[in-house]
Amino acid sequence: MRVHLKGIHTVRSKGRIYHYAWRGGPQIKAKPGSPEFIQQYNVAQAERKKLPTNCLFTLIAEFKASSEFPRGAATQKEYRRYLAIVEEKFGTMPLKAAEDRRARGMFMEWRDTMKATPRKADYAWTVLARVLSFGKERGRITTNVCEGGGRLYEARRQEKIWTPDHISRFIAKAPTELHLALVLALWTGQRQGDLLKLRWSDFQDGRLRVFQNKGQKRVVIPVGDTLAKWLERTPTRALTILTGQRGRPWTGDGFRTEWGKACERAGIDDVTFHDLRGTAVTRLAKAGCSVAEIASLTGHALKDAQAILDAHYLGGAAGVGRSRYGEA
């Protein structure tokens, strides 16, 4: 039986034929088609697949297998995507070189190649810095040369909130299954992924019990009259509160796609779903919550919650909570 070996590279030189396990790979000296030829090919391929030791490939693999690797599915997906970018560029870099202070300049030059997309550049830098921090904490390297470094993307999201005009335009153009998602975000300040997983069983005795995946904690949120009315008149179509047009739970990608289409139809391009969290901060403050209480409910850092209030609620924009659904 003839066995096809993938990637064999054949070279003819001076009347002789030479076979290599792959282009640029080791030469196979056994007779083609013989068991010895197949064995040498398999050994070469096995060696090729082995990760080099004491390099960034090794450290990244250890990080992904550790308890410090992010738990959230969405965050894991992003981390894996950016770790692949790091591996492609620096995977074989020895750890001794990675902790050399001169490597910082090399890493910054790499980040600069992505400056046309500053958020991508910053995320890639953050992921690399996290891997090096992990290596330092575990004693694999002595220095994290990516500590600090600043950011290329300087957008101030705390200055972005949904106004009554945004809300009314969205309601007018979005399909009805997205209306409740908007209202839930406005009145709870929770992250998109956590809201999509929210079940009807989490709504009891006038309270929502939300599990915040990022902080790995459960918070209990009192439900005001406006949100309660929305929940009470929403039919139960699945275990989850939020469902798509066919009554099935949303997937993250499906929801983001439909939300983006609705915003495009409404002409909303200056705020995002994430900015609904900041809007909720202003509503909670108007309802009398302290900054610490707001942060504990929404999952914001204290300084971020305070920055949102400084930019809006405390700056004279106390009316941002008014909408067609009432006031906070």
UniProtKB/TrEMBL annotation:
Residues annotated as domain Tyr recombinase: 157-326
Coiled coil: none
InterPro entries to which the protein is assigned, alphabetical: DNA_brk_join_enz, Integrase-like_cat_sf, Integrase_catalytic, Integrase_recombinase_N, Tyrosine_recombinase_XerCD
Any one biological process term the GO annotation gives: DNA recombination
One Pfam family from the record: Phage_integrase
Family matches, as PANTHER family: PHAGE INTEGRASE-RELATED, PROPHAGE INTEGRASE INTD-RELATED
Protein name from the UniProt record: Integrase
